[in-house]
Write a structure and sequence with these properties.
By secondary structure, the protein is of the alpha/beta class. 42% of the residues lie in helices and 10% in strands.
């Protein structure tokens, strides 16, 4: 039986379906959407894809994807030197920036995941520990995902910092904090899962402080 769709359509759909959150049906819809666009729009897409990695580098200090090294955040004199947020990917930096964080960052490049063969050596944890020795950082904010892998990564980093402080390689007053977890603003209590409720109870604080 001959294929119904042209090879070019099938090829693009297959590529699109490999993207995160895009299944075969969504890939087909996107492909046919692009087919209905003018040539100029298709050319813009093609040019954007072709140049995606041409002018990009990873900042040698924080490892965020940028157009220059060091990146604008690391180069800025207005950022708080003492606060360092440790995140998994560059995209996490955007989320914290929108939330108003004014410190600096360190991008790990992923999370510890034995199932996916990702060990601490595959991440930028060793470089993070070197930064803590060299830079005037007073607080490390562990902003990894609240998943099993994210928690494991945060625990590992905390343990390494604790060892460094005991051995005198890191400042004794260096504090390690974790992003608070719990119920989202505007959410309904009845729809919250048990783990979220448990963490919300563990992280509860004075009502007057929370207001």
């Amino acid at each position: 039986m001959k294929p119904i769709l042209p090879k070019a359509v099938v090829a693009l759909s297959e590529i699109l379906s490999t993207l995160p959150g895009i299944g075969p049906k969504s890939a087909n819809r996107l492909t046919f959407y692009l087919l209905n666009q003018p040539d100029e729009t298709i050319s813009q897409f093609a040019e954007a894809f072709a140049k995606l990695r041409q002018d990009l580098v990873k900042c040698g200090r924080c490892h965020i994807v940028a157009e220059q090294d060091p990146c604008p955040i690391c180069s800025s004199a207005d950022r708080a030197q003492a606060e360092l947020a440790v995140v998994e990917e560059s995209l996490d930096v955007l989320a914290l920036e929108k939330a108003g964080f004014l410190g600096r960052y360190h991008v790990l490049g992923g999370q510890i995941s034995p199932i996916n063969s990702v060990s601490p050596e595959d991440l930028t944890i060793a470089h993070l520990l070197r930064r803590l020795k060299q830079e005037p950082i007073k607080e490390v904010i562990l902003a990894t995902d609240p998943s099993l892998e994210g928690e494991a990564t945060a625990i590992y980093i905390d343990e390494q910092i604790t060892v460094g402080k005991k051995e005198g390689e890191l400042p004794k007053n260096l504090s390690v904090t974790r992003l608070a977890r719990g119920l989202p603003v505007g959410g309904d209590l009845e729809y919250a899962d048990e783990l979220t409720l448990s963490r919300a109870l563990e992280g509860r604080r004075s009502y007057h402080q929370a207001k």
